[in-house]
């Protein structure tokens, strides 16, 4: 029994220590310490609404929304996004059509309209704000990553 | 027939109150009656319009729980309730015509809403949701018919600076609003209240 307790401590203490150590270089995302303390809310960030399409960081990335979507209904009754991005409204709106995958079910069968699993647009597509990231983004574009492989001689020079 | 009408007219003229009303005044002076009538008219007209304006306030509208619990609650949080410059649209700004004749016409139609309140047509959230599409369609039809007059009372297309709008809004207004193809309500539905089931409504999927 005594042996068991010792083994437990032996396994748990390093994890806790590591947690504390790692927590130090990450920004605190959980609010004030202690959590009961009331602090003024941080200011709202300005939305990016310049209507300029943003490059995808990888081909499968859901494109981000370059306009304001404030007050847009996406609920049981109505989907405001589809008033412009549905296939039949793209001519009058000049908005990009939702991808063809959105008209397919998960087995790849083409449906008559927007697939129910794609209905809630903001599950994947989100507007952007001018907020500075809390942690540094070290994402590397796939092209940059494969460049040395594709152009080995350029690397040698 | 003619004899019957003449007999009824004779009976009407013989009535004591009618006789008094139709004979010249015995005691009151002409000046008192004309000036007094004028002053009484001013007081009546003032009182009438004061009462009319009192029924044309947000406070009056939301004194019925149908409005307060449903549509007013939904208005809060939209751009017409809170915004950066603090300009507020209240219920009558959008739902009652500002011009006097049309205002009176709308007020007479609204007597049905008093009936609805007394007999509880939409006294629960469920009844309201069941009727929401019907109610919304009435307002859309009204605004379509008057070319979105209540929107244009504040949002004039002559004062609209397209260069201050984002390109998407500017091009939409240029192509559809300024050419007269569409009116405000055609595109801007559900901006102040939540939408009903939009299936079958043009422009929605």
Automatic annotation (TrEMBL), chain A:
InterPro entries: Multihaem_cyt_sf, NapB
One Gene Ontology cellular component: periplasmic space
Functional note: Electron transfer subunit of the periplasmic nitrate reductase complex NapAB. Receives electrons from the membrane-anchored tetraheme c-type NapC protein and transfers these to NapA subunit, thus allowing electron flow between membrane and periplasm. Essential for periplasmic nitrate reduction with nitrate as the terminal electron acceptor.
Residues that coordinate or bind heme c 1: 67, 81, 84-85
Name used for this protein in its record: Periplasmic nitrate reductase, electron transfer subunit
GO molecular function: metal ion binding
Keyword Metal-binding: yes
UniProt record, GO biological process: anaerobic respiration
Assembly behavior: Component of the periplasmic nitrate reductase NapAB complex composed of NapA and NapB.
Listed SUPFAM superfamilies: Multiheme cytochromes
Keywords noted in UniProt: Electron transport, Heme, Iron, Metal-binding, Periplasm, Signal, Transport
Family, per entry: Belongs to the NapB family.
Gene3D superfamilies: Flavocytochrome C3, Chain A
Binding site for heme c 2: 102, 121, 124-125
Major localization listed first in the record, in broad terms: periplasm
Subcellular location: Periplasm
Modification comment: Binds 2 heme C groups per subunit.
Signal peptide: 1-23
């Amino acid at each position: 029994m005594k042996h068991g307790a010792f083994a437990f401590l032996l396994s748990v203490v390093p994890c806790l220590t590591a947690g504390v150590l790692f927590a130090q270089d990450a920004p605190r995302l959980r609010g004030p310490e202690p959590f009961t303390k009331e602090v003024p809310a941080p200011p709202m960030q300005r939305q990016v609404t310049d209507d300029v399409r943003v490059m995808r960081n990888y081909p499968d990335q859901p494109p981000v929304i370059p306009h304001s979507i404030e007050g847009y209904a996406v609920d049981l009754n109505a989907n405001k996004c589809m008033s412009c991005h549905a296939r039949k409204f793209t001519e009058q709106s000049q908005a990009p059509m939702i991808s063809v995958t959105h008209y397919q079910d998960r087995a790849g069968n083409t449906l008559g309209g927007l697939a129910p699993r794609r209905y809630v647009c903001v599950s994947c597509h989100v507007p952007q704000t001018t907020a500075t990231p809390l942690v540094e983004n070290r994402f590397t574009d796939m092209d940059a990553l494969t460049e040395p492989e594709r152009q080995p001689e350029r690397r040698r020079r | 027939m003619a004899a019957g009408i003449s007999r009824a007219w004779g009976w009407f003229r013989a009535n004591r109150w009618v006789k008094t009303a139709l004979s010249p005044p015995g005691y009151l002076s002409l000046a008192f009656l004309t000036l007094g009538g004028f002053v009484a008219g001013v007081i009546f007209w003032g009182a009438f319009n004061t009462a009319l304006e009192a029924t044309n306030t947000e406070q009056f509208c939301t004194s019925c729980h149908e409005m307060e619990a449903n549509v007013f609650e939904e208005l809060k949080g939209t751009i017409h309730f809170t915004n950066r410059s603090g300009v507020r649209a209240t219920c009558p700004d959008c739902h009652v015509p500002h011009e006097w004749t049309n205002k009176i016409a709308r007020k007479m139609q609204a007597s049905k809403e008093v009936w609805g309140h007394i007999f509880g047509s939409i006294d629960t959230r469920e009844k309201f949701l069941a009727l929401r599409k019907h109610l919304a369609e009435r307002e859309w039809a009204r605004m379509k018919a008057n070319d979105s007059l209540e929107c244009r009372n504040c949002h004039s297309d002559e004062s609209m600076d397209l260069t201050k709008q984002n390109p998407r809004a500017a091009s939409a207004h240029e192509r559809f609003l300024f050419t007269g193809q569409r009116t405000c309500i055609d595109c801007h539905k559900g901006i102040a209240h939540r939408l009903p089931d939009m299936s079958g409504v043009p422009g929605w999927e």
